[in-house]
C-alpha cells in the first residue's frame, strides 16, 4: 500500500510536492528518495500530474518518491524562480526525513524532458558559485545533494536547444530573453556549463523522439566523457512520451536505473 503526503515548500500555489511512500516494517527506513521532476518545456500548462503516475509506480516498487511541482515560465517561474523552486523543493526533503523515515544519503532525480534539464542542472548546484551565481539566484551551501540523475530525453544542452529553437523559443521564454541579451543567465542555466559532474547521470533517450532531439543527450554525454563520473547515454524504444508511460519498456528501463542508483 502506498501512503501519500502533500507538503508546501513555499507560499506560491505551485510550490508543493507530494511524497509517495511504500509500507515500511516497524522501525524500518526508506532507502533513499527519488525526486520526480515533470517536463512540459517549462510552461505552466503542464504540471505535476505528469509525474504522479511515475511517483506512484516508484512507490509500488518499494521506492520513496517526491513528486515535485514548481513555478514555470508564465506563472511566476522562469529565471530565477523555476530554478529556485527546484532547489528549494529538493531541500524540503530535509524537513520530511525524520517524520517519514527517509534516508537522504541517496537522493536520485528522475526528470523528463524539461524536467531532465532541471534534474541534471540541480545535480550541479555545487558548481553554480564557480559559474558566478548572480542574477537573483540564491544557492544554499547546505542543501540536499543529489547523488545521481536519470534524465528522460532531457533538454541537457540549452545553447543548442536555443539554436534549434525547440518548442518555439522555449529556452528564451524560460530565461526572459535570448542568450544575446542574457549571456550569464543562459550559461548558469545550462547543465553543460557545470560539467564535469561528480555524480552519475544516465541520459536516457527514446529512439523515436521527435520532441527533444537525440543531440540534447548525446552532446551532453560527449562533453562529460573526461570527467570523474562520465555520464552514460542509454537508448530506449518508443517516442517522447513512452518514457513516462509506466507500462512501456522505455519507462521500465528508467525505473531500473533509478533503483540501481538508490542501491
From TrEMBL:
SUPFAM superfamilies in alphabetical order: alpha/beta-Hydrolases
Superkingdom, taxonomy of origin: Bacteria
Keyword Hydrolase part of the UniProt annotation: yes
Pfam families reported for this sequence: BD-FAE (PF20434)
InterPro entries: AB_hydrolase_fold (IPR029058), BD-FAE-like_dom (IPR049492), GDXG_lipolytic_enzyme (IPR050300)
Key words of the record: Hydrolase
One function term, GO molecular function aspect: hydrolase activity
PANTHER family tied to this protein: AB HYDROLASE SUPERFAMILY PROTEIN C4A8.06C (PTHR48081)
Full protein name: Alpha/beta hydrolase
Amino acid at each position: 500500500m502506498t501512503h501519500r503526503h502533500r507538503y508546501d515548500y513555499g507560499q506560491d500555489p505551485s510550490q508543493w510536492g507530494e511524497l509517495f511512500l511504500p509500507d515500511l516494517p516497524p522501525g524500518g527506513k526508506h532507502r533513499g528518495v527519488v525526486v520526480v521532476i515533470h517536463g512540459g518545456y517549462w510552461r505552466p500548462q503542464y504540471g505535476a500530474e505528469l509525474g504522479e503516475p511515475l511517483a506512484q509506480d516508484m512507490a509500488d516498487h518499494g521506492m520513496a518518491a517526491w513528486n515535485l511541482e514548481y513555478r514555470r515560465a508564465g506563472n511566476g517561474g522562469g529565471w530565477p524562480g523555476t530554478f529556485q523552486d527546484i532547489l528549494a523543493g529538493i531541500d524540503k526533503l530535509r524537513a520530511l526525513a525524520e517524520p517519514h523515515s527517509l534516508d537522504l544519503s541517496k537522493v536520485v532525480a528522475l526528470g523528463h524532458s524539461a524536467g531532465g534539464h532541471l534534474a541534471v542542472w540541480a545535480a550541479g548546484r555545487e558548481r553554480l558559485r564557480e559559474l558566478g551565481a548572480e542574477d537573483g539566484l540564491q544557492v544554499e551551501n547546505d542543501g540536499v545533494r543529489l547523488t545521481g540523475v536519470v534524465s528522460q530525453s532531457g533538454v541537457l544542452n540549452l545553447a543548442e536547444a536555443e539554436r534549434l529553437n525547440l518548442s518555439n523559443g522555449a529556452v528564451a521564454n524560460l530565461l526572459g530573453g535570448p542568450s544575446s541579451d542574457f549571456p550569464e543567465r543562459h550559461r548558469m542555466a545550462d547543465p553543460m556549463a557545470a560539467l564535469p559532474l561528480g555524480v552519475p547521470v544516465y541520459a536516457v533517450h527514446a529512439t523515436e523522439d521527435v520532441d527533444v532531439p537525440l543531440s540534447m543527450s548525446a552532446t551532453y554525454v560527449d562533453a562529460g566523457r573526461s570527467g570523474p563520473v562520465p555520464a552514460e547515454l542509454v537508448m530506449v524504444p518508443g517516442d517522447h512520451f513512452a518514457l513516462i508511460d509506466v507500462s512501456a519498456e522505455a519507462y521500465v528501463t528508467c525505473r531500473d536505473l533509478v533503483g540501481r542508483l538508490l542501491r
